[in-house]
From TrEMBL:
Signal peptide (from-to): none
Protein name: Amidase
Residue ranges of domain Peptidase C51 in the record: 194-344
Organism per entry: Enterococcus ureilyticus
Pfam families on file: CHAP, Phage_lysozyme2
UniProt-listed PROSITE patterns: CHAP
Gene3D superfamilies, per database record: 3.90.1720.60
């Protein structure tokens, strides 16, 4: 969430470069979902205004966690109320892709009025951020020349967004993962639909647990930890300090995770009995008994990358490498012939 105060910044750990600027080339990326269409427009805006692909992706990674890349979103999905929206002293009512709040929110609304346009228009929000957001516009343009995607992501979060969670390591890891995901999807020729690797085949919050027992050491425990890393009302237990919440069914069988919780009403999407073409990096994947899942309870993991030709990689726990978080190369329908569901954060 963006707040109104502006801290003094003395050092920016950004690597600057002139490459990858001024071009709107996105190779074979074809936006399909509403989120991808928004991302594509933001990405093209940045490149046309001299920013790097790395910066565009880092900005999108932050926006995804601020607003879900929904330009009309108001914090907590509240309705629009003039008395609150135009009061610069009131916070907690952030708006737009970057969730501008307080005085910056009012400045956005007033700018839209002067342009005789809707504040929800992506073009209005981009123009405001780039040219009319006081000293923050200059700061954004400075960041826009950077080529170190992870550093830019954190710099935007800490110095431009100035979110309350800006120093939370898990929040930083999630945003870097999202930024790298968008970079792969938009600049490396992925076909849209989220088919690219997350962070080049890595999910930061799970990379930190590689080789370690997570929660209770069961496969369910690793998926529970992954779900806990999101801002959600769903918690799967299995050793989680958050316990179990959002459940509407039994909470033991990994094969039933897709139907045992109120996912859809808590910001997630579930696809039951999916095909290989449905899966994306970052998805939770659940299998019924069979093959590498000998137990009647099934097995669960998180997809790390989707490589084509029915190949994909996962993070799993309590599989052949033991009761630790580890990576596995998988072939669709081979090791686990019965995929019951995939679950994806909206």
């Amino acid at each position: 969430m963006i707040t109104i105060f502006l801290p003094i910044i003395t050092v920016f750990a950004i690597i600057f470069g002139a490459s990858n600027t001024g071009s709107s080339d996105t190779k074979d990326f074809t936006p399909k979902t509403d989120q991808e269409k928004v991302a594509f427009e933001v990405y093209q805006f940045v490149l046309k205004n001299g920013g790097t692909k790395e910066f565009a992706s880092a900005w999108l990674g932050n926006m995804e966690h601020e607003s879900g890349l929904i330009p009309s979103r108001i914090q907590s999905d509240l309705p629009f109320q003039d008395a609150i929206a135009f009061n610069p002293t009131l916070g907690g009512y952030a708006m737009g892709l970057a969730q501008w709040d307080s005085g910056r929110r009012v400045n956005l609304l007033n700018f839209a009025k002067t342009q005789k346009k809707d504040w929800k228009d992506i073009s209005v929000q981009m123009d405001f951020a780039w040219n009319h957001d006081s000293s923050d516009s200059a700061l954004l343009k400075k960041f826009s020349k950077g080529t170190n995607i992870n550093q830019i992501t954190i710099d935007i979060l800490v110095h431009w967004e100035r979110a309350g969670t800006k120093f939370d390591p898990m929040q930083q890891a999630q945003r870097k993962t999202s930024a790298n995901n968008w970079y792969n999807r938009l600049s490396k020729g992925s076909q849209g639909g989220g088919s690219a690797n997350v962070g080049g085949g890595k999910i930061d919050v799970l990379e930190t647990k590689m080789g370690q027992q997570v929660y209770n050491g069961e496969c369910y425990g690793l998926t529970s930890f992954y779900v806990d890393s999101f801002n959600t009302g769903i918690h799967l237990g299995a050793g989680s300090p958050n316990g179990i919440s959002g459940n509407i069914g039994e909470t033991i069988s990994a094969s039933l995770i897709g139907s045992s919780y109120a996912w859809e009403s808590n910001g997630w999407t579930v696809i039951h009995n999916p095909s290989y073409s449905d899966i994306k990096a970052g998805d939770i994947i659940n299998w019924a008994q069979g093959g590498g899942a000998p137990s009647i309870y099934g097995h669960t993991g998180i997809i790390t990358s989707v490589q084509g030709n029915n190949k994909y990689t996962t993070y799993e726990q309590n599989a052949s490498q033991g009761r630790i978080c580890a990576k596995y190369d998988r072939t669709w329908g081979m090791e686990f012939p019965n995929t019951t569901s995939i679950i994806r954060k909206k």
